[in-house]
Design brief:
This protein is mostly beta strands and 132 residues long. It has one domain: Jelly Rolls, CATH 2.60.120.10. The chain is built from 1 helix and 7 strands; from the N terminus they run H-E-E-E-E-E-E-E. Strands 1, 2, 3, 4, 5, 6 and 7 form a 7-stranded antiparallel sheet that branches. A hairpin with a 7-residue loop joins strand 1 and strand 2. The mean pLDDT is 88.
Length: 132
């Protein structure tokens, strides 16, 4: 590993941070449903969530019209539904969900936990009406 002082510009650069451990977060939220964790650091360009779907639970078909989403299964197994048919997913499955794609999720016998990552949506801005 390089000493940060040896890397040009490193003294002024933001620092990487360990945010958690997905295994520990999943174990702690084993009885929970929904988002177990969300990326909330200020100044970020990404959004990320750790989502838990209970055994045999599901998320209805939906589409994200504006953003590509990367989905990484970190625990359990299930089925990702799509217009091309169902895809079996398990721990370690890495899935790209292009913007506009329709998908659903159904957890298997032990539930399903996955991380999603996508570009952060810009915040809303209040603007003056045209001509004002």
């Amino acid at each position: 590993m390089s000493d940060p002082e040896e890397i040009p510009g490193a003294a002024d650069a933001p620092l990487p941070r360990i945010l958690g451990n997905t295994g520990s977060l999943v174990a702690a939220g084993a009885e929970s449903t929904g988002a177990l964790w969300r990326l909330a650091e200020p100044g970020r360009q990404l959004d990320a969530n750790l989502v838990r779907v209970p055994p045999k639970g599901s998320i209805d078909a939906h589409a994200e019209p504006d953003l590509d989403v990367l989905l990484l299964v970190v625990d359990g197994d299930g089925v990702l539904g799509s217009a091309a048919g169902p895809y079996a997913v398990e721990s370690g499955s890495l899935v790209w969900l292009p913007h506009g794609s329709v998908r659903s999720v159904r957890a298997g016998e032990s539930g399903l936990s996955y991380v999603t990552v996508h570009r952060r949506r810009p915040g809303m801005r209040i603007q003056s009406p045209p001509g004002a």
